[in-house]
Specification:
The protein is of the alpha/beta class. The protein has a single domain, classed as Alkaline Phosphatase, subunit A (3-Layer(aba) Sandwich). The chain has 14 helices and 17 strands. Strands 1, 4, 5, 6, 7, 8, 11, 12 and 15 form a nine-stranded mixed β-sheet that branches.
Length: 503
């Protein structure tokens, strides 16, 4: 059976005749550009220089096609993204001296700090100091101080590397999230997961290389920051490198199943015919997105088998649910998402990102952060321990954090039991585990107010450079030419790998 209709040639040619502006310059540019380059470089432009021996040629080809690759510490990563920015003062950055300064007005002190305040607090008459209401205790051999809100995370303190000196450039959520997850506050950039897919490829041809999970939160409030697909989009990279969102309800991936009455054999013939049309179209136009569409159709066809098996958690043992908590049986919960993340990386997904929203606590912080922490605490412990038990933690990097920190002063009214905190970009805390980082260490230090960094600052770009390094990528060499510039995740501002935390 010929998969193409008899009159395909006329339709096909008419379609390809409608060149876009970009396609025109691509086609004419290749002809004129090659001619000009040949005139400048002579025979070298046409590849007429004698080739070295075969083995040297192979090494040279690899170095030229993937010059960014270095020896990896990890094969895959799970990024737990806490949208809204958890308060470092109430979870990780213990400041006991503040307890005796309750309600002290910091207005004069803030004036000397030179920081831009948000519109939510800039016009407050007073800036009352708000010590945390939660107790802290030391854990692990390193004696790390952790809040009572995270009892399970505290149990694995020796597995974790805390960076208390994170800093960023943004003071509002959307640009801050874009900077953390795409390396830039501007729209249109490629996300971290897309860069990893582009630089490293896939470990499983039947699943996407980059998967996004959206965990439901159970907190009793409505201040939940909206997020957009820009945070997991591919930007200027090919569309196949974008994150694929798995839904928390209904079918994990929409439109994956065949339509009623379409048998799999017919679907296969349809894709073969479509692939042939796309191949011929690509030969005439040269648009790489044509190849991307073909690859995505083929991946979707293979996912029809792989995704149902992935989503079926009935084979997980009672011990696993005991580890993550009973909430893991509720699809879409954070615990269920954490378990799904393990199943995804276990099957070769390169990068999994779990978004958990609701951490933007401008008011009622003691109530809301307690609820949010309960959502994630046990499951985070379960995820790290599960990976360790399966021998996967050494090659799986786990990252936990938000987009910036919170202020030491209260937003709005302050009582002994209730307060809120505004955005604070100068310092915040994240933690990492596995994948080539040291366990049981704290990197960086803040001042007595958790307001400024006094030791070992780590910018978001430094974090990106470190994550790429651990996964086997030189961040200065992984680039993509777009609009005449060599685009990179870490941009053009200097960024450094945080070598002190590497195992």
């Amino acid at each position: 059976m010929n998969p193409l209709p008899p009159d395909w040639q006329n339709t096909f040619n008419a379609y390809n005749a409608a060149l876009t502006r970009r396609q025109f310059f691509r086609q004419t540019g290749s002809g004129l550009g090659v001619a000009a380059l040949s005139a400048l470089l002579g025979q070298r432009a046409l590849g007429a220089v004698a080739a070295p021996n075969a083995s040297a040629a192979a090494t040279l080809t690899t170095a030229m096609t993937e010059p960014w690759k270095i020896a990896p510490k990890a094969k895959r990563a799970i990024y737990i993204s806490l949208i809204g920015a958890p308060s470092q003062l109430d979870l990780f950055d213990y400041k006991p001296a503040l307890q005796g300064r309750f309600k002290e007005d910091l207005k004069g002190w803030l004036a000397g700090q030179g920081e831009r305040l948000t519109g939510m607090t800039a016009n407050q008459a007073a800036f009352p100091l708000a010590p945390t209401t939660f107790k802290f205790a030391q854990h692990g051999q390193g004696g790390m101080w952790l809040s009572e809100l995270l009892p399970n995370i505290a149990k694995m303190a020796d597995d974790l590397c805390f960076i208390r000196s994170m800093k960023t450039d943004a003071i509002n959520h959307e640009p801050a999230n874009q900077l953390v997850y795409t390396g830039s506050m501007q729209n249109g950039k490629a996300s971290m997961g897309s860069w990893l897919s582009y630089g490293l490829g896939t470990l499983n041809k039947d699943l996407p290389s980059f998967v996004v999970l959206h965990a439901k939160h159970t907190s009793p409030f409505s201040n939940v920051q909206a997020i957009s697909s820009r945070l997991w989009g591919s930007g200027y990279l090919e569309g196949r490198h974008a994150g694929v969102s798995f839904r928390s309800q209904g079918e994990p991936v929409l439109y994956l199943n065949d339509a009623p009455g379409i048998p799999r054999e017919l679907r296969r013939k349809m894709l073969d015919g479509l692939g042939e049309l796309n191949r011929r179209s690509y030969e005439q136009i040269g648009d790489p997105e044509i190849q991307t569409r073909t690859q995505q159709y083929e991946l979707a066809f293979r996912m029809q088998t792989s995704v149902p098996e992935l989503a079926d958690m009935s084979g997980e043992s009672p011990a696993t649910y005991e580890l993550y908590g009973e909430e893991a049986r509720t699809r879409g919960s954070f615990a269920s998402s954490a378990l799904m993340a393990r199943r995804l990386v276990e099957r070769g997904v390169r990068f999994v990102q779990i978004f958990h929203r609701g951490w933007d606590q401008h008011g009622s912080l003691p109530r809301d952060i307690a609820s949010q922490s309960k959502d994630v605490d046990r499951a985070c412990y379960g995820l790290v321990q599960d990976l360790k038990q399966r021998g996967m933690l050494d090659e799986t990097l786990v990252i936990w954090g938000g987009e910036f920190g919170r202020t030491v002063y209260s937003q709005g009214a302050l009582t002994e039991t209730n307060y809120g905190r505004d955005h604070h970009p100068r310092c915040f805390t994240i933690w990492m585990a596995g994948g080539g980082v040291k366990g049981g260490v704290v990197h960086g230090e803040t001042d007595e107010m958790s307001y400024n960094i006094v030791k070992d600052p780590v910018h978001v770009r430094d974090l990106h450079a470190t994550i790429l390094h651990l996964l086997g990528i030189d961040h200065e060499r992984l680039s993509f030419k777009f609009q005449g510039l060599d685009q990179r995740l870490t941009g053009v501002v200097p960024a450094s790998v945080v070598k002190a935390i590497l195992a």
